[in-house]
Amino acid sequence: MIEIDDLTVQFGGVRGLSALTASLPEPVTGLVGPNGAGKTTLINVLSGFVRPTTGSVRVDGRDLKDVPIYKRAAFGIRRTFQNEQVVENLTAGENVAAVLDNVPTDGQPRRQLIETALEFAGLGTARDVPGHSLNAYQRRMLEIARATVGRPRLVMMDEPGAGLAQHEGEHLRSVIKQIDGYCGAQVLLVDHDVDLISATCTATLVLDFGSAIAYGPTQKVLADPKVRAAYLGVLEETT
Ligand SMILES: Nc1ncnc2c1ncn2[C@@H]1O[C@H](COP(=O)(O)OP(=O)(O)OP(=O)(O)O)[C@@H](O)[C@H]1O
């Protein structure tokens, strides 16, 4: 559960977020909006890379101002990046293991956690493959294995579907929908691909100029004339 209260982020003269208030309880929540709307800024506040100018954010009731950036992964906040953070000379299994160095394992054997995470992401047979030999899709899925290993609370995904073939995109959707059941984490999904958002997110928050212009069930939100007007280019391309 993410609770955002009157959150403003000022970058010098530019406003990244403007008095944003929202409660996001759904297991898979979409975060959309035109370029420059503040989506990355919100993810950066949750990750700890950007400090709020005013306002607060709570995750599962904990005010993130009390969780320093180096403790966010251990607290359970994870993210995947558009440019995958794969360590090229480590195997897929070692890439996942590196995350476990920083998060609680609840006494479970590391090897088992790693294998389960790889299996979940569809990489069960790639454990010993070095990062530099993984294809683009495997690298994307390795990001998901890394983000879901252990006990995450919140997995934020930044354009996970970009550049994937259709069958890869379909597998990705099914994996995203299973994250909550698999590890109990809430997913916050940023993507310009409205089809991906529609297929995976039960609720969606729309930002424009750093503020919320709509929040609710995804299909309803995407049909909202206000949203279509703000987001026209992207929506028109896909309809
Ligand atoms: N580090 C920064 N310094 C100055 N301005 C910034 C910084 N980060 C973001 N901004 C500005 O804040 C506003 C919100 O940007 P943000 O990257 O959060 O938008 P976005 O919705 O993620 O856009 P996109 O879809 O293009 O990734 C923009 O006006 C942007 O130029």
TrEMBL record:
ABC transporter domain span: 2-234
UniProt-listed Gene3D superfamilies: P-loop containing nucleotide triphosphate hydrolases (3.40.50.300)
GO cellular component labels: plasma membrane
Record GO terms (molecular function): ATP binding; ATP hydrolysis activity
Keywords: ATP-binding, Nucleotide-binding, Transport
Residue stretches in coiled coil: none
InterPro entries attached to this UniProt entry: AAA+_ATPase, ABC_AA/LPS_Transport, ABC_transporter-like_ATP-bd, BCA_ABC_TP_C, P-loop_NTPase
Record's function text: Involved in beta-(1-->2)glucan export. Transmembrane domains (TMD) form a pore in the inner membrane and the ATP-binding domain (NBD) is responsible for energy generation.
Protein's name in the database: ABC transporter ATP-binding protein
Organism: Bradyrhizobium hipponense
